[in-house]
Amino acid sequence: MEEKTLQILEYNKIIEKLKEYASSEAGRGLCSKLKPSANFRHIKVWQSNTSDACSRIRLKGSTLSFRGVKEIGGILKRLEVGGILSAAELISVSSVLIVSERAVSYGKSDSDEEKEDSLSEMFSMITPLVSINREIQRCIIDEDMIADDASPGLASVRNSMKRTAGSVHEVMQAKLNSCRDYLTDAIITQRDGRYCLPVKAEYKSKVPGMVHDSSSTGLTLFIEPMAVVSLNNKLRELKAEEQKEIEKVLKTLSESLMPYTDTIGDNIKILKKLDMIFAKALYSQAIGGAEPGFSKDRSINMKAARHPLIDKDKVVPIDVALGSEFDQLIITGPNTGGKTVSLKTTGLLTLMAQAGLHIPAEEGSIMGIFDDVYADIGDEQSIEQSLSTFSAHMTNIVSILGKADAASLCLFDELGSGTDPTEGAALGIAILNFLHNMKTRTMATTHYSEIKLYALETGGVENACCEFDVATLKPTYRLLIGVPGKSNAFAISKRLGLPDYIIEDARARIAAENENFEDIIAKLNDDRSRTAKSMEEAESCLRDAEILKERLRKKEEKLEAGRDKILQDAREEAQRILREAKDTADSAIRNINKYGAESDLAAAEEERRKLRSNLKEASAGNGGIVVKGPSKPVSPKKLQVGDEVRIMSMGGMIGTVNSLPDKDGNVFVQMGFMSSKVNVKDIELTGNKPVGSPGGGNKNGRGSASGKASGRSDGSNGYGRDFGAKSLTISPEVNLIGMTTDEALPVLEKYLDDAYLAGLPSVRIVHGRGTGALKNMVHQRLRKTKYVKEFRLGVFGEGDTGVTIAAFK
User: Fold this and answer.
1) How far is CA 541 from each of CA 362, 366, 534, rounded to the nearest angstrom?
2) CA dist 727 to 655, 668, 669, 684, 782, Å?
3) Which of 101, 205, 612, 665 is the most exposed, having the fewest neighbouring CB atoms within 10 Å of its CB?
4) With the CA atoms of 409, 413, 416 and 418 taken in that order, what torsion angle do they form, in degrees rounded to the nearest 10?
5) Residue range 182-228, pLDDT digits in tens
6) pTM (2 decimals)?
7) Could you give the residue ranges of the DSSP H alpha helices within 260-386?
8) Mapping DSSP to helix (H, G, I), strand (E, B) and coil, where does residue 572 land?
9) pLDDT tens-digit series, residues 689-734
């Protein structure tokens, strides 16, 4: 790419922004060298690197700091030739190794969500040399300080230095105390690394020793007492030994690094590259960028693209298409309407995408890959070169036409301007036609109606306009493709206060065909605006409908899943209750057969009550469940009292028909001592006829298929009370109408006892309305009867208030 194009499209400003997100000087240096590429494979790899860095930052919650990565090529060269590094140079190497170790740790996966990506190989190629770096950190405290324990020799020398210095201080302190009257100040000082006392010049003879210095006035002499000369000499010798030990430590550390100069150099290259990649990721987050796709035919389809150097809260996104259905786009409209920004946005985002940077546009945007991007934008008037605005533009255009081809993107601002409008428009059309014949992707802005007509009449060339609100004299900055724009000079002038008579005079001077053309453009723009608004509303409604549809689908799935589970749980519960009911029935029958005395009647009744309760639970537990119906439906007309039937809703229990079907098809079926009301649709004939009376025994002296409740061939139960026979004759209803209360009371009591012992779940007592005396008597009796669970007046269809329904416990 030409440097001039990069400057015009402000690519260099993007690079400066990018450098702000690099955390090392080396990384910033690499960012400065970043240029767009025309190699498809390189661009795809760069874009993948940026996207993967964004993903890592999102998953880990933080970025990787590369602070400490330095360009230490000179240091590595010294190591290669066997040089010994200083403490400061070793610290520089250590800082690189610290970042290397940090990068390796960051590159490891912390969870299953983090998978191998395009950066994994780079992280795996970093060698942090942890043990060597730990030794450097242990030995070197800072640039001017080596740790005492860096080596045994250094530790020994420094211990000797401490002891000798202590002795010097003791002697000097004693001398100071004894010579205090001869001193300028009662302090111990140093001159040339040797301990001295500040002695007044007139008392020089009082303090024997070596004079090392004097004050500027000559009144003070700095004398090293003879008593410490030998100690100071020893201290200086130890200083020299300390320096030798420090050099040994630095040599040892340098030699440990010498075999790894290439490794350290490779680490720096990788870390610099990673620093730039993560800077791209951070910049992408800052501008709301997304990875674009790339077309093979150099077509562009940007969605909601924004210029990255304009505040993202103020910039208006634009949609730009070029190269698929047309290879030239002519943008028209008023000044300050956004035409130039549209050009720069397209050119700049193309350069960013080809440099591996995400672009500020919606996901799914498509960019073309161009060998070169050429731009003629802005006023290039030059006084020094004696170039007018037109000449400067034409010079640049001539250069572009000499280099552009089908693999180029050309951007022209105000094509043909700066000269006679007729000639300028003709030149503009000729230039566009030349590029059109070469299939060069081109975008140009203009005010010339002739160029608008060229776009309308030429295949592969499309008009576009930057929308302008005449009512407010403000541009909306939206780019509308397919409709030429209008300059709106008259409307703007009128709003700014130009007199109407001048505007009308101007209108009269426009050729009729030009005015008609501008009116058509205005009408097209209005129609386009209305259509666009309608489409936006339709799309919004469609999106809302899709959201609602998805919500309903999920809700249905959830309900269906819940329904299936509820049904399954209910089936399992029903089967469990039925099994328990059968087990309870069998147990109760066995217990009843054991009772042979009247005194055991209460226990028998308790067993019957438990059984009936369990059967009710089974019936309730089976509510809402589809139960397998009878294989051979029974006709109500053919059903007779005494027929043996199988009740399907009760798990196939066997019983004997105790009554003929009523109008609803309900019959009472006796199962041992238990009677139940069922519908003929829920039963099927077993094909067996009981021997003797209903409920009687069969040939083997036992009960019928359900006769386990009996155990006696005569049908009695051992109590002296014939439950089986009675259950076949007891009606579920008693009629007391026409009786007095005294006559009705014994009838009612006997009926209740018989019905209860027969196992009827409830009875219907008909007492009529009348004076209410019978009803009151019935209710008083029911309240005192212990085995009556509850009672109530009938409802519509049961006899209303002339009937009382009583349920047994």
Assistant:
1) 21, 27, 11
2) 12, 9, 9, 21, 21
3) 205
4) -150
5) 898 889 888 888 889 999 999 888 888 889 899 988 899 998 998 88
6) 0.60
7) 261-287, 339-354
8) helix
9) 543 333 343 333 333 333 333 333 333 333 333 444 444 457 888 8
